Amino acid sequence: READARVWHAGPVIGGRLRGPSDGGKTGSDDRAQPVHSPADTEHVVGDVVWAGADDIEAALASAAAAADRWDATPGTERAACLRRYADLLETHMPELIALCAREAGKHIPDGVAEVREAVDFCRYYACQVEDEFSGEMPLPGPTGERNTYRLDGRGVFVCISPWNFPLAIFTGQVAAALAAGNAVIAKPAEQTCLIGARAVALMHEAGIPGDVLHLLPGDGPSVGAKLVTDLRVAGVAFTGSLATAKAINKSLAERDGPLIPLIAETGGQNAMIVDSSALIEQVVADVIKSGFQSAGQRCSALRVLYVQNDIADTLLTMLSGAMAELSVGDPWRLSTDVTPVIDAEARDALIDYADKAGKTYESIYTCRLGEDTRRGTFVAPRAFGLKNVDELGDEQFGPIVHVVRFEADEIDEVVDAINGLGYGLTFGIHSRIDTTVERVLRRIKVGNAYVNRNMIGAVVGVHPFGGEGLSGTGPKAGGPHYLHRFATERAVSRDTTAAGGNASLM
Ligand code: UN1
């Protein structure tokens, strides 16, 4: 309660110092603090944010560029120790962070707990990896008279652009990976969730990450993100968000008149689940509800297209409608809430507009009722629509909307082709008790994360390394063994250890 009544502040954090509205014009920011409203109640002011101006961007870049080498030279064990201390601080501050996630991002308490948990896991996972792989040189084989080693170093300044749907977990995952690998970092949180980003950065500094090694620049894509990625001092970009923005960043990087640098992009999905007639229907319904509607469907992993074998479709859809009727849509702070608001009015209006059109074109299977306490927030009623063919499906709808397509028993290969044909490749689910069917589908489906006889969200760090292919992202998988390597540069060093190699005067 105490944490919930609090008002938070965010602004550019440069050199470890949070700039507030009182800093008036010193660095060229638009110093008017903008109020931050809660998605659950748009009259509730959660805090305020000052967006970064051009001078803030320059100050962050200059400071990070000057600090990068020093941080990279800091032993990996020390960098790991900072991440572990930050993870401990996240746990100590869990009630406050859950309240902040509820108020700024509209997350209910289980989702808030999961946010903190995942952020903690990312830090400890990458800390272990840095201790193992980034502390010293690994020996490589070679002929007598030669000593060969392999080492991983930071690239320089990394820009981390994170999404509002996992404002603590993905924010932390990107930043922690970049720092762990030895980079200085400029973090740009989503403009909808700057308060959470600012809180995370404050805790990272408290944990010992130097102020000049980690900076925060709140703002939108055009005013901050676009300026950062074109700067030649930037040596790498991590981005999670829309496909359109990932493509725009890719284009900007390609057009830079400077070194080629990596883009680690994680975008969206048109994630499908196939259910055949051998599936356990009760289990399927529970998994569809969770995969489609938890977090109001605002996960890139969320279920968008449910393929159901015709023989069981009527039964399954009747049971699904019954389960949807029981969903409680409302205030994130209420313990009984299942479905929370969407992030803002723009997202709500776009989803409702889509649903209105879909209601005219598709079969309406079920639309949930909104509760009394939803009138002041940006809520969207969960819906299920029936489609004849997946080709009718347009762009990803980032909200609580599930599309259902029926198929016949002998059409399963065509279904896999249709799913692959959508071009995305993030998550996928299959419910079937026939092992040969499962194997046949898994062999052909082109996705990063496949889930069998379970829900398809909530990847756990180190357990379900997460990330897609095709239109869904570049890889490597977050929370997996190769993620940190993409933030680093690999060096193979070969030393001549013969007398000749050891004595320059013999040349
Ligand atoms: C995202 O929604 O941007 O498995 C990706 C999950 C989460 C998805 C994160 N890791 O549900």
From TrEMBL:
Residues 14-27 have a biased composition (Gly residues). Residues 14-40 are annotated as: Disordered. Residues 30-491 form the Aldehyde dehydrogenase domain. In the C-terminal section; belongs to the aldehyde dehydrogenase family. The chain holds residues 547 to 1053 of 1075 of the full protein. Oxidizes proline to glutamate for use as a carbon and nitrogen source. Residues 28-40 have a biased composition (Basic and acidic residues). Transmembrane segments: none annotated. The active site is at 266, 300. It comes from Salinisphaera orenii MK-B5. This is Bifunctional protein PutA.
